[in-house]
Amino acid sequence: MTITPDQRTTLIQAAQAIRQRAYAPYSHYAVGAALLASDGQIYTGVNVENASYGLTNCAERTAVFKMVTAGVRQILAVAVATDNGGSPCGACRQVLVEFAADVPVYLVNNAGHSRDTSLYALLPDHFGPEHLHSAPED
Ligand code: THU
């Protein structure tokens, strides 16, 4: 599906706005994520850190879990807002690909500039649900 310029702008603004709610007292690296989903809704998330550092949940996975909890399982586009335009971690790429094809990913910095890429560009040769349902290769 093609994302319109207005949808792209709205998604980026949602990621930037929700970033204010990040709970990042240890890293001080606030992340906001926004997903445009197949129901037409935007699902947002922030990173939620913990005094036991390894329990931290990234913003992208927070947003995916909210979308799935709402009963929706298809992502059409992703925006991630950080201070420096940082890219999703490997774990989040894998969780995103469970519910998305090669969708646009907008990586936004604090100046509002987006580097536009795509999920398969970020996670080439990925392992996805299709590998568990297809016949073995010869
Ligand atoms: N973080 C995210 O929220 N998303 C990513 O994809 C990269 C890392 C968070 C986790 C942690 O709270 C902080 O950024 C620094 O790693």
Q: What's the CATH superfamily, by name? A: Cytidine Deaminase, domain 2
Biggest sheet record: 5 strands, mixed
Helical content (DSSP H or I, runs of 4+): 25-40%
Name the beta content range: 15-25%
Q: Give the overall form.
A: globular
SSE arrangement:
Blueprint: H1 5-18, E1 32-37, E2 42-46, H2 59-69, E3 75-81, H3 90-97, E4 104-108, E5 114-118, H4 119-122
Parallel strand pairs: 3-4
Antiparallel strand pairs: 1-2, 1-3, 4-5
The structure holds tetrahydrodeoxyuridine.
Gist of the model:
This protein has 138 residues and is α+β, with helices and mostly antiparallel strands. It is built from four helices and five strands, in the order αββαβαββα. The protein has one domain (5-122): 3-Layer(aba) Sandwich (Cytidine Deaminase, domain 2).
Structural account:
Helix content is 27%, strand content 20%. It has 138 residues and is of the alpha+beta class. The chain has a 5-stranded mixed β-sheet with strand order 2-1-3-4-5. The longest helix is centred in the first third of the chain and has 14 residues, at 5-18. The N and C termini lie far apart (33 Å). The model has no long low-confidence stretch (mean pLDDT 96). The structure holds tetrahydrodeoxyuridine. Tetrahydrodeoxyuridine is lined by residues 24, 27, 29, 31, 47, 49, 56, 58-60, 88-89, 92. Residues 24, 27, 29, 31, 47, 49, 56, 58-60, 88-89, 92 line the site of tetrahydrodeoxyuridine (THU).
